[in-house]
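Chapter summary example.
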Amino acid sequence: MRHTTQQILRVANETLQSLIVTAPPHADALRKITFRVSGRMTAAAGMVKISTSQISLSRPYFEDPTNFEDSLKNVILHEIAHVLAPPTRALGARKRAVHGNAWKAAHIALGGTGETYHAMDLAIGYTRRARTQVNCGCGCGSPMNLGPTQLKR
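The structure predicted for these 153 residues follows.
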């Protein structure tokens, strides 16, 4: 049986409400979080827009009963940890530490695994958008997999 958008949102909101009770120091930040479910997300199971504290969850991943039962809560906690420990850029660093030590500590403190990636398959009937392998343009020649939007740039 496939899980519905309403079921996914119910689990997300129940998880959030329990965190508000069990993690009072973060209650104000947690109350600002909203959830949405996207039918187009096939590359990631979850995503957060930090500026608005809106977390998007992938219907193509969580319609699947196994993913729903085994991974949904961890993905929700993963994205909430991003809200509580936003990406930082170290002095002189070119890239932000999206899954740095502060994020990992927050994820584990919330009850998550601290893992940054998942190994879930999409629910039956969904496919990932095609990716094209090209050589890096900097001259190093290393292969890169680009999606349709990135390929246009």
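To summarize the output: Residues 4 and 10 are 10 Å apart (CA to CA).
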